[in-house]
Write a structure and sequence with these properties.
By secondary structure, this protein is an alpha+beta fold. The chain is built from three helices and four strands, in the order βββααβα. It has a four-stranded mixed sheet. Keywords: Membrane, Transmembrane, Transmembrane helix.
């Protein structure tokens, strides 16, 4: 008797080597993998797909996946798309404030250095 497993509809991953944010979506007939960068080789894609299947994020039959060129025929689509990635507004504001402060400090230091050069010349 075949048992139904409960696969997550959506799972997000972050890889450091190479740096990439990845979204895996299980649809009824296929699996969509969205990556923010196109920095995975075909062998790395195949290994990642096998790992997803082994960990239970996509159907089990992908554990023996080996040919990334035939991925569209096997029900896996690998897309480079960063539109799904959302940056936390609070973190973005903190980054903007930090950059603004750094620019202000640099401007004040530049004015002081110019004033010192003008005083030493005169």
């Amino acid at each position: 008797m075949k048992t139904e497993t409960c696969l997550p509809k959506r799972a997000e991953f972050y890889r450091r080597q190479p740096e990439n944010h990845i979204l895996v979506q299980n649809n009824k007939d296929d699996v969509l993998i969205r990556a923010t960068h196109d920095n995975f080789s075909d062998q790395r894609k195949a290994a990642f797909i096998r790992e997803l299947a082994a960990e239970g994020f996509i159907p089990d039959h992908y554990q023996w996946f080996s040919d990334p060129d035939a991925s569209n025929y096997l029900g896996i689509r690998w897309v480079v798309d960063s539109s799904w990635l959302q940056i936390n507004n609070q973190i973005a504001r903190k980054g903007e404030m930090l950059c603004g402060r750094a620019l202000m400090v640099a401007a004040v230091l530049w004015v002081i250095l110019v004033a010192l050069v003008l005083m030493s010349v005169g």
